[in-house]
Amino acid sequence: MSVIGQTALIALGCNQTSVWGNATSTVQRAKLLVAEQLQNDAKCSDCFATKAVPAGSGPDYINAVMAVQTTLSPPDLLRSLHDIEERAQRVRTTRWGQRTLDLDLLAVDDLVLPDTQTFAHWRDLDLVDQQRLAPDTLILPHPRLQDRAFVLVPLCDVAPDWVHPVIGRSAAAMCAALPQADRDSVVRLP
């Protein structure tokens, strides 16, 4: 079944065993649940193994990205993603901590939410503040997706031509601009 609407880009990550098994099994199950909940066939990247960020903060992650069509508003879509995280028994205790499942709404078409100034504030936070502060509203696009190989490499599997509405560069161009070592650290699983 196909849904006409906006294209949403969703990042999936896991570095703990969940009720659905190991990290790879959890990400695979989450892909199915997202598509099922949205009643949509989704375009999914392969799974990739990546180091936890910041370095040494936990076991390696399994990451992937999906592109889905949805008629849900971004807040409703985020609530739907949080429902799936809860089914995986996600507990939010430590910012950037280990997790059974992390579903991040990366972008919805070319929306900038709540506005460009708020987006820029969160994008430009220094690393210390990024680790301790969390916004109380949905920020789109995700403020740091352009900096993260573990997002951009799988994103290029499903939407290499998506253009960041603030930065004005495609996913492929943002990925290519990252250091080669960062891109090489994101390892495609067989």
Number of strands: 6
Low-confidence stretches: none
Number of domains: 1
- By CATH, the architecture is named 2-Layer Sandwich
Outline of the structure:
The chain has 190 residues and is α+β, with helices and mostly antiparallel strands.
Report on this model:
This protein is globular. Strands 1, 2, 3, 4, 5 and 6 form a six-stranded antiparallel β-sheet that branches. The protein has a single domain, classed as 7,8-Dihydro-6-hydroxymethylpterin-pyrophosphokinase HPPK (Alpha-Beta Plaits). With 190 residues, it is of the alpha+beta class. Helix content is 34%, strand content 17%. The two termini are 28 Å apart.
